[in-house]
Amino acid sequence: MTYKIKVAFLSALVVILALIYILILVFDRDYRRSDVFAWLDPGLIVMADRIEITGTAGRIALNRRNNNWFFDAGNIELPVRQSRVDDLFTLLSGRAVYPVRAASPAAIDRLGLAEGTAHRILVRGGAGLPLLDLLIGGEDVLGREVYLRMSGRNQIHSGEGDFTFFTNLSPIAWYDLRLFQPFNVEVVQQADLNLPGGEAFSLRRSGAGWVILGENVSIEPLRVEAWLRAVIEMQGDDFVFDAPPENIDGSITLRLGDGSTRVLEVGRIYEEERWLATVGGTSLVYSLSDWNFNRIFRDSAHFVRD
């Protein structure tokens, strides 16, 4: 009898747990299949080759070339922060709770989801075919969620307001403004500096330290390493569509251990109190503020040990 009682008890427990699970699926919106989904199938991300975003900055477009994303600036493509694009795809392809709020034409207008007025994230792939066309409307009364609708559908969902982060971004927030692609300080063997004031000197690695060629002075290696790191990690303030500077007022040439070089040249635009900067091997022109310029164009006295 004891064995039969145990079997009956366990069987009843299984039934009770099954009923609880079913009730959760039916009544808890976090588990309802109609509410939990991803806007973009993760498998489609590899097909995406263009993103068009319409938001507070107007319409911007990003193009994919050789697995890298670029900002479409019309007659030129500018490098984009790849991590920012990755974050967008993570949001679009991540499963989350998007409960249905309405499904009428009147609600579409009232919640800011009409074509032509809503913000939009459009992902294209292949021959320009839309992989996702998502409309983003107004916020709910608490300002915590936004209303969302797939173009061509009446069904309106709500979700957390992370989508507006991307539709509110200005173009400059997408740009990758690094002057150099990352590389380690340790590979730099020599740095040649030509300063606007006329001073020119070369720092060369010597054992565990540094020397200034032709000068009998003691160099503080930590200052050189910190300066090199600032140069390698330097970002422009913006891209500019001017021609490269007519007059080169200063330059920094980094000579690497593999025999290659990285060359930065700058020219002063006096009436605008800024510098134009170019990096060898690219056609991009960057704008540098005086503050950024002064961080990397240092005179030889800066590196001498106190």
Summarize the structure.
With 306 residues, this protein is α+β, with helices and mostly antiparallel strands. The chain has helices at 2-27, 82-93, 105-110, 162-167, 171-174, 221-233, 290-296, and strands spanning 36-37, 48-55, 58-65, 68-72, 77-79, 96-97, 100-102, 119-125, 129-139, 145-150, 156-160, 188-194, 200-206, 209-212, 238-239, 250-256, 261-269, 274-279, 285-288.
Describe this structure in words.
With 306 residues, this protein is of the alpha+beta class. The protein has two domains: 31-174, no CATH class; 185-303, Immunoglobulin-like (Sandwich), CATH 2.60.40. Helix content is 24%, strand content 35%. It is built from seven helices and 19 strands. The protein has helices at residues 2-27, 82-93, 105-110, 162-167, 171-174, 221-233, 290-296; strands at residues 36-37, 48-55, 58-65, 68-72, 77-79, 96-97, 100-102, 119-125, 129-139, 145-150, 156-160, 188-194, 200-206, 209-212, 238-239, 250-256, 261-269, 274-279, 285-288. A hairpin with a 4-residue loop joins strand 4 and strand 5 (77-79). The longest helix has 26 residues, at 2-27. The termini are far apart.
Number of helical stretches of at least 4 residues: 7
Mean pLDDT: 89
Radius of gyration: 29 Å
Number of domains: 2
Number of strands: 19
> What is the terminal separation in angstroms?
93 Å
Element-by-element helix/strand order: HEEEEEHEEHEEEEHHEEEHEEEEEH
> Unreliable runs, pLDDT <50, ≥5 residues?
17-33
Spatial order of strands in the largest sheet: 5-4-3-2-8-9-10-11-7
Question: Which structural category do the helix and sheet elements fall into?
Answer: alpha+beta
Described by strand count, sense and barrel closure, the largest sheet is: 9 strands, antiparallel
> In what range is the share of β-strand residues?
25-35%
Residues in helices, as a percent range: 10-25%
Identify the overall geometry: elongated
Oligomer: single chain
